[in-house]
Structure formats: C-alpha cells, structure tokens
Amino acid sequence: MIADTLRDRIRSGGPLSIAAFMTEALFDPRHGFYATKDPIGAGADFITAPEISQMFGELLGLVAAQTWLDMGRPDTLKLIEMGPGRGTMMADALRAARTVPGFLDATEVVLIEASAALKAVQAQTLGPSGAQIRWVDRLEAVAPGPSIILGNEFLDCLPVRQALRHEGVWHERLVGLNPDDDGAFVFVLGPPLGEDEALIPARLHEAEDGALVELRPGDRQVVDLLAARFSEQPGRALFIDYGPAQSEMGDTLQAIRAHKKQPPLEAPGTADLTARVDFESLLQAGRDAGLKAYGPECQGDWLLGLGLEARAAALSQSQPGKRAEIARQIWRLTDNEQMGELFKLVCLDSADLPLPPGFSAG
Ligand code: SAH
After folding, report:
1. Distance from the alpha carbon of residue 34 to the mean position of ligand 1, in angstroms
2. Protein residues whose CB sits closer than 6 Å to any atom of ligand 1
C-alpha cells in the first residue's frame, strides 16, 4: 500500500514535499492511482471534456490540421499528446482531421503516458484509427521535427509545492505524520523556501502570515522543453485545464474519488490528486522562455467561437435521436456553471506561426 510506503519514508527521512507525496500517490508503478487502473469515465472517478463529447476532440483535431497547413504542410508532423487518458480525444481529433488531405499521411502520433493501465486503453481506442502511434515516457524522447502538442487535464496533475507565510517568512509546506495518531498524514511547516522564494509570483510575495501560495515546478519544466524544441522547428502546444486566469493565493490541492471530493491526504493512491493551474505564471514562463503565448481563453467561449454549435447541429441531423444528449453535452462543456469558465486554454507557439484558431492576439 502506498500509504504504508509513504509512512515509512516519513518515519525514516522526515516530512515529504507535497510534490513527492503527489508523485507517489499518482504514479507509484504498483499501487499509484493512475498506474493501476483506468479512472476516467462516468462509472469511474472523474470525467473529462473529451469523455463528455466527441465534439471536443474533433475541434482540436481541426485546429491541429489548420496548424499543419499554417506550418506549410511539412512532410512529417509529430502530433504529440501529453496524458492522453483513454485516447478518446486523439481518436476524435484524428477522425476530424482526416478531412484535410495529406494531414494523416504526414502525421505520426506520439503519446506521452505514465500509466501502463491507460496505455493499454489508448492502444485499444486508437487501433481502429489506422494512424502510426508511438508511446514515449517524456517529451525529450520525441525526435526533432515540426510538432503539435496537446494536453487536456495534464498540467493539473503535475506535482505542486505549497509555500506558507509564517512569521514574515515563506516556508515550504510539507506532509508529515500526526504525532497523536501516528498513521494519519498531516500538513506541517517545513524549512524556509530560501532562494525558491523567487518562484512566488511578485504580486503575491508580500502577504500576511498564514497565506499560502502554490508553486508548479512541473509547468516550468514543460515550458522549457517546449521552448527548446520550438527553437529548432515550428511547434504549437495547446493546453486545456482548470484554474484562474490570474495567479491567486490559496490551497487548491484536491482529491477526487468516484466523482466526490475527498480529504487530499487521507488515502493516497485511491483518489486523483490535482491542483489548479496558474495560467498567469504559465504564460509568463512561456514568454520568458521566448515562446509566443496566447490566452487564457475560457473553454466555453473558445469552443463556441470555433463553431461548436454548427458541429452539434450537423451531428443532431445525422443522429436525430441524440438531439437532447448533444444539447446537454454543449451545456456541460460551455456553461459558466459547468466547465465553460473554470476550464481554459492556453497556446504556446514557436515564433513563426500565425495567431492560433480561437485566440485573440496576446
Ligand atoms: N487527457 C485525458 C486524461 C486526463 S487525466 C482526458 O482528458 O480524458 C491525466 C492523464 O495524464 C492521465 O493519462 C495520466 O496518466 C497522465 N499523466 C499525468 N502526469 C503524467 C506524466 N508526468 N507523464 C505522463 N503522463 C502523465
């Protein structure tokens, strides 16, 4: 059990960073939440936009094909997805993009997936697409060349750190064990952040005691890898995730099991653990790394702007029995009380590409 392994680590080595706790809980190869099962879907733990509606992946596929055209139809294109889950979004994207002549012949699909269980599901979902598909563990392993990178709800499960303001100094917040109940995980105050204080957005730096800020080192790593890749060859990365447009204070670590929120430290390995993406810092990191950065655009506006309703009308016409279901899918993806406003898109581009579809100039 992961909880036992984590307890042993804390007993022998002291409290763990939240990032280390998350990494273990999600990706321990034997017992991690993602490693062992397929948690995505109505009957499982959580549901995502591509699982709500095929139209989501279809629109992303059309954007990918348009991007390939804008790149000048390179002979080979890597269409990379980070964290493809069940493979549904890629299957829908490829089906829609097939309508653009030449696109599929040029495209090699590369999936970056940490979970063995989900890789197996992806192979099944994408088998019928007929596309060439490869799996790699990390972006660095993808050969150079023009690329389009997609990631839906990928960034939110990259491990976060938390900083807590205590007596006028920023400290790391760690996970330890409750001294009165040796088995229970609790948050504890760790050492001062030291030079990592520089990672706190400047606007939030001076804060009252008790303030909490989340740091997302994983986002920066991804941005740096993109910048290195796109400095050689044209590239576009589109990420869709949940979080505020502007950096905010506060603890957003959340655990979800069977569609319900759980206390985040209670049962590592049995629930999804995510934290809100800080889009302001992500875009700033992109610009600092020399990328063109666009967004965030709210998911609802973006999908509607790209013609979601026209696509829905066409689908409803071909499947009249599904009219009500399709209308409900639009509502779930775009309504502000549903996913429409909390979920957002950002686009990080190499210097040579035109404005990405559905974004306004940054
Ligand atoms: N994009 C899918 C799944 C989202 S869940 C959808 O929208 O339905 C997050 C996905 O990212 C899972 O496939 C998970 O296994 C994968 N993942 C998370 N962190 C990862 C990492 N560091 N490396 C590779 N895959 C990762």
Report:
1. 8
2. 34, 40, 48, 50-51, 83-85, 89, 112-115, 118, 152-154, 157
Distance of CA 217 to the CA centre of its chain: 14
Instruction: Say what percent of the chain tops pLDDT 70.
Output: 100
Structure confidence by residue, pLDDT tens digits, 161-199: 999 999 999 999 999 999 888 789 999 999 999 999 999
Contact 133, 109 (CB under 8 A): yes
Domain that holds residue 12: 2-349
167 found inside a domain? yes
State pTM to two decimals. 0.97
- Annotate 266-283 with DSSP letters as a single string: SSTTSSEEE----HHHHH
User: Do residues 94 and 104 lie in contact, with contact meaning Cβ atoms separated by under 8 Å?
Assistant: yes
Rounded to the nearest angstrom, the distance between the alpha carbon of 122 and the centre of ligand 1 is: 11
How many independent structural domains does the chain possess?
1
Burial class (CB in 10 A: 0-12, 13-18, 19+), 85: buried
Distances 250 to 78, 186, 314, 348 between C-alpha atoms, Å: 37, 17, 43, 26
